[in-house]
Design brief:
Layout (H helix, E strand, L loop, with lengths): L32 E12 L1 H14 L3 E6 L16 H4 L1 H11 L4 E7 H9 L5 H7 L4 E6 L12 E4 L3 E5 L32 E2 L1 E6 L1 H18 L20 E12 L8 E2 H12 L3 E5 L3 E2 L1 H11 L6 E5 L7 H21 L5 E7 L7 E2 L3 E4 L3 E5 L3 E2 H5 L3 E7 L7 H20 L3 H10 L4 H8 L6 E4 L7 H9 L11 H8 L9
Parallel strand pairs: 2-3, 3-4, 7-15, 11-13, 12-18, 13-14
Antiparallel strand pairs: 1-8, 1-9, 2-5, 5-6, 6-8, 9-10, 9-19, 11-16, 14-20, 16-17, 17-19
Helix pairs in contact: 1-3, 7-8, 7-15, 8-9, 9-14, 11-12, 12-13
Length: 506
């Protein structure tokens, strides 16, 4: 099976070709491009990310582009550091950066309906922000999307040589440390002392050609949303911030969702990668996601759960969605799909957990992370719901350990290490304890988690779905609030990628 690709890497969704190598990341299919990252870092939770972002913006030389679902210039970036609160707020930091550097331009592109939501938080409209800001600091809204669609990417590109991409919006209610205290005095919305709840999130940072590729994507979005064409920044070398490197000289794949709109064809690389991951899983798929509301993915998981020697699936979710509308759309779908999956789970290999803080307050899971065996790590903006697969714009980045790569063992260890780092955070133990528990349990992540769960304090608790009212059952059955937007490729993807299962080693 073959597909044609245009100059931007967009492919027709008519078929899925068989991979020609032992890889799940296939440009034009499960990803857009694969580029080398000189350095790659992962930020677990927003406290360190925001502090690093502040540092990187103030060091920028030519251009900073923010591509976001939501944006709030009033938030503090590094509230743990000394100094005046006003000087630490995002808006003043951006203004200070452009005033200190006459060569610097900063652009902020936000989803248009996100701006409407911002008005409910008493944030100044974009037009006022532009009037109050220096000429080289520009705020814009992006209206170029289908009805009901959202621009959901969370990307920041600095000088086309550093790029952040993942699940963390540069807005209110995102800041938290990995302690996820029940009550943290610095965890509150701007200009209020009312404390917000614990919030878990993940994003990544890359330099080198991978950052340039994300810069290409960000500039394409900027032109689509504003009509202004931006040339690449060519004459700036990456200034790596003071942050620990996860991997060096590693290939990074960029996967997208782009809806069919305004003459652009549907791109659903993210959905195809989801299906490829499930098809190729040998032992374990670990997932952190805001929702569990995509029937196609749930059916693919159920298919694998029916195999006697199939993989385990561990999913982390928040206890409930944030807004009334999300609760009606996503929580109801989760109940329905959980029933589907659990009926298929005859070998007891599926779990859905909610993390809780020390006082057993639920931690809101906003992260979008997938870890396949010891093979693939994906961090992105896409959720496990229908709109992230075909209606919204999304951006995920992945690394993969390839058979025969001289650094295969190093990358496999890093992938597993990140899984254990995340689970250690949720279970209140060190990552090494998670790894040791998995080994004691013969490689079973489900049994390892059960051995580390605690009845009190910080831990993971099994999610128990509530009973649905008649209206909620109707919404779950009809998918009225979150309809499918892509063709079903599970059987073709399973055939193409199912043979790419590799036994976990080491």
């Amino acid at each position: 099976m073959t597909e044609s690709a245009d100059s931007t890497g967009t492919t027709s969704p008519a078929s899925v070709p068989a991979p020609t190598a032992d890889t799940l990341l296939v440009p034009g299919e499960t990803c857009w491009r694969i580029e080398r990252a000189d350095r790659h870092a992962v930020f677990v939770d927003a406290a360190d990310y925001f502090a690093t972002l502040k540092q990187a913006v103030l060091r920028a030389e030519r251009r900073v582009l923010f591509i976001g679902w939501d944006f709030d210039p009033r938030i503090r970036l590094d509230p743990r550091a000394p100094g005046r609160a006003h000087d630490d707020r995002l808006g003043p930091v951006l203004e200070r950066a452009v005033r200190a550097n006459p060569q610097l331009e900063i652009g902020v592109l936000q989803w248009d309906l996100g701006m409407v939501v911002a008005l409910t938080r008493r944030m100044a409209p974009i037009v006022l922000l532009n009037r109050r800001s220096p000429d080289r600091l520009r705020f814009s809204v992006d209206t170029h999307h289908p009805i009901g669609g959202a621009h959901h990417q969370k990307i920041v590109v600095i000088d086309d040589c550093l790029a952040f991409a993942g699940g963390i919006d540069v807005t209110a209610d995102r800041w938290d440390t990995s302690e996820h205290r029940d009550r943290h005095p610095l965890r509150h919305r701007p200009h209020t002392t009312r404390l917000s709840g614990p919030w878990h999130d993940v994003t990544s940072l890359v330099s080198g050609p991978a950052a340039r590729a994300l810069g290409d994507l960000a500039r394409e979005r900027w032109e689509s949303g504003t009509g202004e064409h931006l040339e690449p920044v060519d004459d700036v070398e990456a200034c790596w911030p003071d942050v620990e490197t996860f991997l060096t000289d590693v290939d990074v794949a960029i996967s997208r969702t782009r809806p069919e709109h305004g003459g652009a064809e549907l791109v659903h690389e993210i959905e195809l990668l989801w299906l490829a991951v499930i098809a190729a899983a040998r032992e374990t798929v670990y997932i952190e996601t805001q929702y569990f509301a995509n029937r196609r993915i749930a059916e693919a998981i159920a298919d694998r759960l029916g195999e006697p020697d199939g993989p385990e699936f561990v999913v982390l979710n928040p206890q409930t969605a944030e807004s009334w509308l999300e609760t009606r759309a996503m929580d109801t779908a989760r109940v329905k799909l959980l029933d589907l999956v659990r009926r298929a789970d005859r070998y007891d290999r599926f779990r859905l957990y909610v993390p809780v803080a020390e006082g057993r307050r639920p931690v809101y899971v906003h992260a979008k992370v997938t870890v396949l065996d010891d093979r693939l790590l994906r961090i992105g903006s896409s959720n496990l719901n229908n709109r992230s697969m075909g209606l919204d714009t999304e951006c995920d980045v992945s690394i993969e350990a390839r058979t025969g790569d001289p650094r295969e063992a190093e990358i496999r260890a890093a992938v597993l290490g990140m899984r254990h780092r995340l689970l250690g955070e949720h279970l209140g133990v060190e990552p090494g304890e998670v790894a040791a528990a998995v080994e004691r349990c013969g490689g079973s992540l489900v049994r390892a988690i059960e051995s580390l769960q605690r009845p009190t304090g910080r831990s993971l608790v099994a999610f128990e779905p509530p009973e649905l009212a008649p209206v909620e059952r109707f919404l779950a059955e009809t998918e009225l609030l979150d309809a499918e937007h892509t063709p079903n490729r599970w059987r073709r993807v399973k055939q193409a990628f199912g043979g790419r299962r590799r036994r976990q080693r080491g």
